[in-house]
What we know:
Two copies of one chain form a homodimer. The first copy, chain A, has three domains: about 5-170, MoaB/Mog-like domain (Molybdenum Cofactor Biosythetic Enzyme, Chain A); about 175-245, Alpha-Beta Plaits; about 250-400, Alpha-Beta Complex (Maf protein). Chain A contains 15 helices and 17 strands. The first copy, chain A, has helices at about 10-15, 20-30, 45-60, 75-85, 95-105, 110-115, 155-170, 190-195, 225-240, 250-260, 275-280, 300-305, 310-315, 320-335, 380-400; strands at about 5-10, 35-40, 60-65, 90, 120, 125, 135-140, 145-150, 175-185, 205-210, 210-220, 240-245, 265-270, 290-295, 340-345, 360-365, 370-375. In chain A, the strands form four sheets. Chain A has a six-stranded mixed β-sheet, with helices on both faces. Strand 14 of chain A pairs antiparallel with strand 14 (about 290-295) of chain B, so a sheet runs across the interface.
Amino acid sequence: MIAEVVSVGSELLAGQIANTNARYISEALAGVGVPVMLQTAVGDDVGQIERVLRAALGRADVVVVCGGLGPTHDDLTREAVSAATGRLLERDAGLVAGLERRFARMGRTMSPSNRQQADVPAGAVSIDNPVGTAPGIFLEDEGRLVYVLPGVPDEMEAMMRGFVLPDLSVRTGGSAIVTRTLRTAGIPESDLADRLAGVIGPNVGVYASEGEVRVCLTAPASDAGGLPGLEREVRTRLGSLVYGEGDTTLERVVSGLLRQRGLRLAVAESLTGGMLASRIVGVPGASDIFVAGYVAYSARAKIRDLGVPPDVIERHGLVSTETAVAMALGARARAEADVALSTTGEAGPSPAEAAVGRVCVGLSWEGGDAAWTFGMGGGREMIRRRTCTYALNRLRLWLLGDPGLG
Amino acid sequence: MIAEVVSVGSELLAGQIANTNARYISEALAGVGVPVMLQTAVGDDVGQIERVLRAALGRADVVVVCGGLGPTHDDLTREAVSAATGRLLERDAGLVAGLERRFARMGRTMSPSNRQQADVPAGAVSIDNPVGTAPGIFLEDEGRLVYVLPGVPDEMEAMMRGFVLPDLSVRTGGSAIVTRTLRTAGIPESDLADRLAGVIGPNVGVYASEGEVRVCLTAPASDAGGLPGLEREVRTRLGSLVYGEGDTTLERVVSGLLRQRGLRLAVAESLTGGMLASRIVGVPGASDIFVAGYVAYSARAKIRDLGVPPDVIERHGLVSTETAVAMALGARARAEADVALSTTGEAGPSPAEAAVGRVCVGLSWEGGDAAWTFGMGGGREMIRRRTCTYALNRLRLWLLGDPGLG
């Protein structure tokens, strides 16, 4: 089975947003053995959408359409699917009732334009939307499978996971492309590529983003016998640089290690300004392992809220390993936590350009502390995100008992 | 003139990367008055690329092709352009000499595969690549303009700026598309669409994301006379729902208002867990208006760090307007701030599903306080993000002196 992805939205053609939905859908389809042959983005024009859909239905076995299912006048995907397949739109009474219940629960009145979200082409099945109001649409048309999903990423992803992928997995008998992703932190892409020289090739790719590098191993299921050996080789060469697999995250791994060891964490943040706490709190069950966070952006807040001695700041500066350690120590004491992680640094755009990207991370635990200083490029947002990744990775290595720690 | 963008690369179809090049090219073309009607992504398959190019040349006046110009055997765009236009590839001696000089400068030997980067279709002109080795290709084919650029973003962007955009500006006489984006918060997309009934149409579109809705006004420069009137109408109907224009953000607007009024902010966060502070600290110059943030995730942290009276939590619960106000009051006092904003709520996935998405926001200032409670759908991350947007918007309205405030 071969798929095409059709994204609908004039904002894509105007270049106001990148087509991240097509990326998500394509990766997910590949994961269940349905490779994507073409991605198309088309504007909010019913004739254009219809033309693109007809062409896709003429070439592919599976067409995933994304966007244009909302309640406004420029949401035209329903009409276009109807026209391209010659199936009239019918209002689904069950869907109307479901929408009414949903609006009642939220204490909102349902507008007439919401009601048209219950229109589906004749013979189609609606796909439940667990996180929004626009239902999706599934229909089989002359042997072609058509899945129509909303363009809001959360809603689209929930329907891919909840309906499209399980449905396709059953149909393909699970004959997937086998993909295995190893996630690393703490090493630049080019250094990692050097470590994997001779291994990187048609089955092994390396992709960098925001201070992390992913190693992807890929093969068709029929030819996946070599993957375990390749994975062993990659793991041997990379050691503890690999922090996890699949779609896990560094904060999820760190949360798991803290839970395993029965430790509770506090964080003290300057330049990351809450982002580090937010990443940790984003993992379900955070209350088991996270105690408190302090965003101490000014020197005064560092002294008042974290008890950093003024003379440490005076002698070593706000961006110093000494201040980072004092911040971590203060956060741990105040929050009555077992371990505390801190960040301080200069994210720019001011002051002196030379200082921008210099960052210190501190760690304090019962009986010891450690700190690291490093530099990086990128804009304000990128520096803050990379600092969080760096800090989380340092905490991970400490939790693993990295012998490199003092 | 109407354009299409064709992106070449199997990594796009595998979903390994998002098609950010198509976004850049589309936005840039719109800026010189050449709207994009279709974006297509195709894999490294010479037959498929040729087919897509033929179709694009049959519909558009301008085709920008991106990717597949490198030196490896899966770089097939040259061959496909040659096949689609019936123009044989010819080796350009001048380009070979240029490549040789470039390699000599870098102290590297030129491989035979690099040499084939000097192949161009008959009658085509090469486009200088100031930042890499792969030259671009420009050709006029039966009245169609074809620009072929490398897929490396830096190289593509340099050639867009250096060649494609100046060339097209001359041809269109500089007739740009005029776009104006109004950003709103505090109203769902469908309600906003109802308020704009009769205005939404070919020149006015509405796009929702993460608790915000953007209203985009668009027209070709030659026909932009009506936009100011449309914008006035939209602003009249939406009033203070419009928080800004263009690519500003809610946190940027709130930071500006705080600065104007000489007020300094503290935040106290439960379910948002640092995300609210992080959004504010993300705006350059945050130290002028932001004092401190407290992530008090547990009841104990709320009592200890924010001085929330235990009996308030006992009587009203952790997710209550009373607790939200006490958190804000405590943060303001501890941080010696002028105003403090707080969030508390249930982001899921546990406990009782009914409670998930119930959120309270509190505000405390010298002489008063206020709190709001509301519900929303979505996953954990989405609920947290929407709560931040809701809270920032409440603070904005207070800073504007919204008369609805107690």
